[in-house]
Amino acid sequence: MSHRTAAIIGAVGRTLIGMGLIVLAFAGFQLWGTGLQEARAQAALADEFEERQEAVAALLTTTVPTPTTAPTTAPDAGSTDQDGDAAPTSTTAPPPPEVAPELAEILMPDQGEVLGSIEIPAIGVEREIVEGTGRGDLQRGPGHYLGTPLPGQAGNSAIAGHRTTYGQPFHDLDLLQPGDPIYVETLQGRFRYEVLPQTDAEGNEVGHYIVHPSQIEVLDDVGDNRLTLTACHPKYSARQRIIVQAVLASEPAPLLPIPTVESANPDLADEDLSDESIDDGSVDDVANTVGVDDQALDDLGWNMEERTPTLVWALITFLVFCVGWVGARWRDTWWPWAATAPFFLASLFVCFTHLDHMLPAL
Questions:
Q1: Which residues touch 353 (CB under 8 Å, ≥6 apart)?
Q2: Residues β-bridged to residue 247
Q3: Whole-angstrom distance, CA of residue 211 vs CA of residue 240
Q4: Shortest CA distance to 231 belongs to which of 138, 303, 306, 124?
Q5: Nearest to 137 by CA among 284, 348, 299, 305
Q6: Rounded Cα gap, residues 52 and 58, in angstroms
Q7: Are 156 and 149 in contact (CB under 8 A)?
Q8: Using 50, 70 and 90 to split pLDDT, how confident is the model at 101?
Q9: Nearest to 95 by CA among 128, 71, 112
Q10: How far is CA 239 from CA 80, 133, 161, 296, 298, in A?
Q11: Average pLDDT over residues 25-33
Q12: CB 243 within 8 Å of CB 218
């Protein structure tokens, strides 16, 4: 083998090893790096939820009147009024005080705000819940589908979560069994759900089932009070969705109104909300204000808008590497590698972030 051939083979081998290391680094970034980001976001959401609880408590203190008289009770038998007639008897309790508008506004979070927390003891899940299921929302924690009732209320409340990245909160949904409890806490209280039984292909009773992303009927109101959890399936793939449904084990909380297009977009109140206006983007997130649309379970696929920044940062990372390599060869020393290493790692991290946002959210 000639010296030139050996040099070419060595260069190709080093290139392949380097590419393999980059792939492993990206896998580590997705599995653990995104988890660190989610952990920081969860800490911030926990603080935000505590602040909102304190705000609700303060409003309840100032808006709920303290009774100044004894409650109405039935008078003693034989009692009479001033005219000697029998006093009317009544056991009707006074109506509850109306909820202050300020309190109702806090109870219904805006998209991106903390909604509450979810606890699934059987699989060790304790997470804060975000309002919304966009990419940015789910990177912070499980997200509540806009357009469905809040957890604890009547109807079918739905929550989505990552299964393999960003803390993988719903990684083990397939391990849940019928009857397993799920606890959800919102500003309206703490609610217990119990996993509903499903039947798998072999006829076994399990706690989940699998659907295609187009089967949005799993989010429909079927007449009971339930919680629907969704995540990608199988693990490390977005080809299907795993569904876990649980029934509310207590009376539901008062139902807060789901925002309408007019309330979410006041400027569009008098405009025609036709299919064309939705398709051309003039109505942003219309599905999140009028209910769940056909893409509710399938809006976390490829995001090609991130293709250009991914390629740009990949080129920057490569150029930084070349600078270090040329400097090391020219000076025949290691310090150019050390000098360029921080810039290389920083640009690689940004490149990985854009690449992760481009790939399907798992």
A1: none
A2: 194, 226
A3: 6
A4: 138
A5: 299
A6: 10
A7: yes
A8: low
A9: 71
A10: 76, 18, 15, 14, 9
A11: 80
A12: yes
**pLDDT at res. 266:** 44
Q: Where are the alpha helices (DSSP H) in the chain?
A: 3-28, 34-63, 101-107, 135-138, 261-264, 275-279, 287-290, 307-331, 335-358
Place of tokens 């217990």: 192
Taking the C-alpha atoms of residue 362 and residue 354, their distance in angstroms, rounded to an integer, is: 15
pTM: 0.73
pLDDT tens digits, one per residue of 208-255: 999 998 899 999 999 999 999 999 999 988 889 999 999 999 889 887
Reported as half-sphere exposure (CB side, CA atoms, 13 A), residue 159 has a value of: 31
Residue whose entry in the numeric block shows the structure tokens 């609610």? 191
The per-residue pLDDT for range 190-218, each reduced to its tens digit, is 999 999 999 988 889 999 999 998 899 99
Measured N-to-C along each axis, helices 335-358 and 307-331 cross at an angle, to the nearest 10 degrees, of: 170
The one-letter code for the residue type at 195 is V
Q: What is the pLDDT of residues 175-187, one digit of tens each?
A: 999 999 999 999 9
**CA gap 268, 274 in Å, rounded:** 12
Determine the Cα–Cα distance for residues 189 and 152; give it in Å rounded to an integer.
8
Distances in Å between the Cα of 176 and the Cα atoms of 114, 209, 222, 235 are 25, 11, 22, 15
Task: Tell which wins on pLDDT, 295 or 158.
Answer: 158
Report d(CA 242, CA 217) in Å as an integer.
14
Between 219 and 353, whose confidence is greater?
219
pLDDT tier at 98, thresholds 50, 70, 90: very low
Res. 128: pLDDT tops 80: yes
